[in-house]
Amino acid sequence: MTQEHEGNVAMGTGTIRALSPLDLETRLALYRAMLRARYMEKRAYDLFMQNLVKGTSHLSLGQEAIAAGVGHAMRPDDYMFCTYRGHNHTLLRGASMTGILGELMGRTCGLMRGKGGSMHLTSVEHGAMGSYAIVGAHLPIATGAAWSAQYRGTGQVAVCFFGDGTTNIGAFHEALNFAAIWKLPVVFVCENNLYMEYTAIDQVTAVEHPAADRAGAYGLEPVLIDGNDVELVYQTARRAIDQARRGGGPSLIEAKTYRHGGHSRADPGKYRPDDEVAAWLARDPLILYRERLLAVDVEEGTLVELENAAQAEVDEATEIARNSPPPDEDIAKIDLWADGGVAWRN
Question: What residue numbers bound the domain in which 96 lies?
Fold first, then answer.
């Protein structure tokens, strides 16, 4: 069942579910979440260009509405699994911005004391159960976490984010199949930004919508939404998460969006048509939502306060992370095995 939202680009045909108006507190929380994500990743880009971010990085600039909307629908003890493009998801689950920027810069204040880097952000205390560099590897793990929650009767839900290219990976189909037959409390969220790495997803996929068009094969409702509409993302995710928590089984959501830059910082993204890029930049989720909030009589001063606060948070986190020392070399010898040591146990 395709879901659309009045005023936004249609995402196909089907029954349109009415969206109930959100209260002001929720709307401002969603805007604040997107601001924090956008400003942090813009700063990550600046730090990368200053050679302060170690290794490469994969940014979600332009895709913030998905992490913000889904994250706000989750319970604090729910599980979240994401890809190497997971800075925003980890932040919006409650992880420290200082910890994230510190990890990107390889500093001791990082979430993993500088050992994991950009592609492996984790904050177990916030339910952020890892960013995974191997495409599709985390879908079976999220399914296993949901199985554990079902077995223990905790009411927890696992939410798993992945890109469009993952839908052509075997693990995608294996995870969906087991989640469906066992009615596991897991929500799969495909962030379809139209491109895998450098290849357009529609050039290598037999169906138009790589996730939604395959949902029926597992007895699931096809859900295709505008991933740049944060309210639509939030309400869709809330329904799916509530369904999973009530024992109604898994959901598969395909949210169409667009990354503003290339696949990684080493990719200029020149393979994308200029008119396509311009059209999607005009549908920037922050710009669209700011206009919507003003249209429903939210005071401009209120939005400016949120914007200034987000910028101040980024500035403070940057300075703390920049001044944090790099880790001692001994960190390479810990957290390797179950006992924390470096030697394999015979």
Answer: 26-322
